[in-house]
Amino acid sequence: MPDSATPVGVLIAQLGTPEAPTPGALRTYLREFLTDRRVIDLNPLTWWPILYLFILTRRPARSARLYERIWTEAGSPLLVHSRAQQKGVQTRLGDGYRVIVGMRYGKPGIDAAMRQFADQGIDRVVVLPMFPQFSCSTTGSIYDAVTQAAFDRRRRMPTIRFVPPYFAHADYIDSLRVIIEEQLQAVGQVPDRFLITFHGIPRRYADEGDPYRDHCLRTGQLLAEALGLQPEQWVQGFQSRFGKEEWLQPYTEDLLAALPAEGVQTIMAACPGFTADCLETLDEIGHEGAATFREVGGAELHLAPCLNAHPRWLDAMASIIRSEACGWTDGDSR
Fold first, then answer.
1. Which residues is 105 bridged to in the sheet?
2. What pTM was computed for the model?
3. What per-residue confidence (pLDDT) applies to 251?
4. 274 contacts 252 by C-beta, under 8 angstroms
5. pLDDT (tens digit per residue) in 2-11
6. Complete domains list, the chain, with CATH
């Protein structure tokens, strides 16, 4: 039986980030990311020559320049926000929990986090994937990494509970609402259109049963309702397309290019699929997306911050974790 005095481990599981905005660091990061079969499921005999001969010889330098635009004195925005989430959630949960950040790609890695739990005698772990909408290419890869790290132990293995997808969780939706409304107040005007944009995946993945698209559509609808928006006030798209294969549509870049022709001059963009600001939010939407919008006649694109370490979201994270850890701490029961 587990010792009730031993803290419950909490793994805040994020995608990952390069260690520095340099071609070398990006090459290491992209190699790990793009060799994950959950992300790219092509036959390695087909994919690896493309990856090693073309992508990893060209893309790291370009990606490094993009990361330089968002890098802070404290480091990668995603890691900075993840550390702040770790600290805020630890404070809210108290001494009965031990909260650690683990990245699927890069450092600090999930394997290192699981070793920390084992070294501290923690054998009950709640895993919170920082992906509200489930996809095998993100959440599924987290499952793989956690179980491999945990069950590689020869003699003692922890009990693990994965927080299920929370794309429709009331506290998650309300956290998004609060942040967007605060941004609206800071901007001081109601935009002509709200843009709700999610990271895309190949359409083939959804056709094969991945529920990601349905989860995104549900989140978008619930968020629009929480904000009191009418159907004509908002659009939803999918960004970050990679390669030549068809991805989920509509593409966010196409929406941004078309909206000015409809008389839209101002946009409030939100990225609810990202729980921490990163390259895809700050640069792809906040910089490149805004530039695309202006180039075709738009005036201003305002980007709402991600959930990051906003107090409302930290409260929500703590509540979600406590619910999943029910029965593992004193006073809880199933």
1. 16
2. 0.95
3. 98
4. no
5. 456 899 999 9
6. 8-166+311-324 (3.40.50.1400), 170-303 (3.40.50.1400)
